[in-house]
Amino acid sequence: MFTNRARKATGKRSGAVLGTLALAICLAGCATDKMTTGSVSRSASPQALEAMSAQQLAATVETLGKSYSRNPKDAATAMRYASVLQMSGRPDQSLAVMRKLAIDYPADRQVLAAYGKALAAAGELEPALDAVRRAQTPEYPDWKLMSAEAAILDQLGKSGDARRLYSRALELKPGEASILSNLGMSYVLEGDLKSAETHMRQAAQAPGADSRVRQNLALVVGLQGRFKEAEEIASRELAPQQAQANVAYLRTMLSQQNAWNDLREEERKRN
């Protein structure tokens, strides 16, 4: 997930509008209405968590919260708890968990990386950047940390620095869907939807692409006014009602902010 970033002084209104829309749509799609059953184990992956309904997430938060309260220094449990809190729309509580864990494990790379992501989710971008950079080791660089650092730089308005990092991350992990998707979002935040779609399509077709990557593609297509196509992409994994709701929300936001006219005018000037 990606938050709206500080804008460069370019005078382009559509870029700022798109940043807001990208955030709004991502938030609107967080709690899908999937009718699934079953519990999630202690080792539940992010993909498994992503497939949960809002009710399942709430139950998982309660279960992990109890485990965490029994032993707050259990790093694995604390990080899972913080992740589920974030997905449940509780970034401040997630950050509190990770801040305490970072105090207990100040040199642990995984803890620092998760702390950085929690800081970014809570809007504390400069401290997030510091935490992610401290987690990185120049002699054995981690492409995931590079991509995370680049995403934070994007939110700080440093798109050039961010894209250079994405390129380095892709050298370490060629064709990685999550990096390509983050790179696509970099162009969304700048208002360059054609470049964004190019990278999003590459991400969606890459091995290992998950639901979030494909929903980002649906977002970019919808932001260009191709609502039917966006709904078709979203419907491949979301319930039809949820896909329709996301597209309807996108239409409303574009209409309310008069953003679609801005986008069309900017596209006309480019051509």
Automatic annotation (TrEMBL):
Signal peptide limits: 1-31
Gene3D superfamilies linked to this entry: Tetratricopeptide repeat domain
InterPro entries reported for this sequence: TMTC_O-mannosyltransferase, TPR-like_helical_dom_sf, UCP035836
Classification via Pfam families: TPR_16
Keyword Protease on entry: no
UniProt keyword Signal present: yes
Top-rank taxon, per record: Bacteria
SUPFAM superfamilies, alphabetized: TPR-like
UniProt keywords, alphabetically: Signal
Protein name per Swiss-Prot or TrEMBL: Tetratricopeptide repeat protein
